[in-house]
Amino acid sequence: MSQRLFVKNIPWSATDQDLAKHFEQCGPVASATIVIDRETGRSKGFGFVEMESGADAAVQNLNGSDFGGRQIIVDMARPREERGGQGHGPRENSRGDRRDYR
User: Fold this and answer.
1) Domains in the chain and their CATH numbers?
2) Quick check: 14 and 67 in contact, CB under 8 A?
């Protein structure tokens, strides 16, 4: 089973391939993705690496390592939290009570 890593402080010039290559020294990389801002098309400076094996070694050996001139932070990724629905149900006003304006 593959494990997913969260990587912060990635240089904006880095590509998914650069990230995968950096992590391959610790084991086989299933995927590497740098998160891109939808509006600007630029990197947000963080991403995810999915490793088939060697994830623990990657956290231990690559956390704090130099990647493209920046010191990256590597940790195990947490499961994605469920987001609440937006725009559904009654709203609360500034006093915290709900009113039905019909």
Assistant:
1) 3-75 (3.30.70.330)
2) yes
